[in-house]
User: What shape does this take?
Amino acid sequence: MTANVAGYLLQLLAGRWLGVAGYSEFASLLAVQLLCAVPALAMQNVVAREVVRGADLRAVRAMQWRCAALVAAVAVVLVPVVAGLLHVGVWAAAAALGAAPALVVLSGEQGILQGGNHFRALAAVLAMAGTARVAPALVALALGGGAAGALWAGAAGIVCAAIIAGRIARSTAREQTPCPDGRTIGVLPVLRAVQVQAALMALSSADLIVVRIVLDDVDASRYSLGTIATKIAFWLPQAVGVVLYPRMAQPTHSARAIRDALSVLSIIGVVAVLGAALAAPLAPLFAGQDYAPIQGMLWLFALHGAILAVLQGALLSAIAVERTALAAVTWIGLVLEVTLMLTFARTIGALITTAVSVAAVTTLIVAVVVLRTAARATIHNPAPTVSTGSVS
Assistant: This one.
């Protein structure tokens, strides 16, 4: 929550200090940074899974640095591409992409803490990292550094956060260092997890791209405002997956952990939808009367986010049990959603209804498959029993 609040604060103050013209560049580059976070999210999940399974932390960190080097190489190649597509300077594009390798290293250290069930230390690192990314950027903006200066300052903050996180992880892991198993951990598992995270990110944001095509500017703005309810319902229960993920990665506990995660996520989702319905009349007071036409649909936007949160939990469990091919269902759902929206949806109601329907079907299929897969794994890997007989 601290990290998310810091991120919203950065966007709010940047919008005021940079003005309408300057903020457009900054917002687009922030979107690029969000895409850069996909490999980092995958890194944390893979590292946590390997730590749960007893991997040597030296092998984990070696894999972490190999992935960071790979991401750095890709970032260098993408700098001129991003600069050309977004019509920004090379220096600004490099600033947006420059944080990507540090994010991978930072997420790897977070994965070590998560896999070792060191959640108090993990919470401290998450809050520290969110603050370290935002505070220098705000200082740069206040001093007139512009979008590029703010992004470079934020990247420097992420580098510092990665260094501090490494020290915290090393000092914490001394108490319970996993037993070395002699395995070399390759980059391929991270790449598989990347496409899972990418599928989820694409499905959760595709509607915001389509509305710019099928709606006029006024209705597109109204739809975009409604997605705030989607984001809240989506990110609110994020800690559920973080805490239960190590259990998902254990074959003997996976099925129970997945059921617990999906159940808790569903309950929180119901609460979020009810909260959005009750709070809907207040929306025009904060956003203005121009947004009054969507207040009756805010519960639908919240439902979309709640369903996506359940899908995220199911996909996390797919990574935990190494069934990442299941992401194909999400990619198919993405294609179906975009096709239906472009073909038939011409109103805000039709767009959000389509998004909710496709997300619900996709989530149901993925959840059923991961639950059945985990149940079969439990049968083949029963929990060890303690013998009560005498030992001669």
Q: What stands out?
A: The CA atoms of residues 233 and 305 lie 5 Å apart. The two ends are 55 Å apart (CA to CA).
